[in-house]
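Table 4 source record.
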Amino acid sequence: MAMIQCPNCGDTISDKAKTCVHCGYELQPAEKRHCSECGQELEDNATVCPKCGCPVEKEIDEASKPQTAPQQVEVTGVKMNKNTKKIVAIVAAVVVVAIAAIFGVQHVQKQNAAKEAARISQEYGENLELVTHTMLSGATDAETCGNLIKKVWYNAIYEERDIETDKYTRSNGYSFDDFNTALANLFTNKKFKSEISGIEDNQTTVQGLMKDMKNPPDEYKDAYDALSKLYDAYTKLTNLAINPTGSLQTFSNNFNDADTEVSNCYSAMKLYIEN
């Protein structure tokens, strides 16, 4: 900044001064104001245009206006202005919605998995009861046929008279010399053949049902073990009824043992099918 002399009073002043600080002499004429409506030149202190009467707004030097710093918000040690805060809020909202959606999907998936597990468990329990009762039905028929086989076999050997077995052991009015003839008469009898055929059909049905019982749910693993034991006993009993072999004594012993085993295994199974 340079120093000059006032042309009016001669005192030293700044070359930037608009008026002399000593005498008030105007060094730089002030910029004239004009009416914004009609363009009339205005006096410095005019508040109304003398030509059109329009109110005159007082101009404010922009340089003299106090500068206001943009509002800032400090979040976790980081200063953010309003726009940044809005962006952060939007992003946070999106993240919250996304997380909620993920948890919602997971919740639905868990619910669906639980429903499917419950459906599988219920279906397995129903099939468990079905195959058990199907085996019991076949075993009951086998027991009836096996007892008749033993009776015909015994009466043929010991020439015992019995209204139920005479038609097989004494079809000609007298006992046959060979008990095999009596057993052949029994197995060729139409009614008995139908009963044996029914046992064979029952075996086929049970075999198909047992295939569906593999890989049981965890809560039915013990039940499946018990079912497998019942199936083994059932198979042994029904095979003896369908195809009796050995002597009368061995057949009778084997058949009675298998019959008892089926009864015991069924009693064990009732713990799982009668809950």
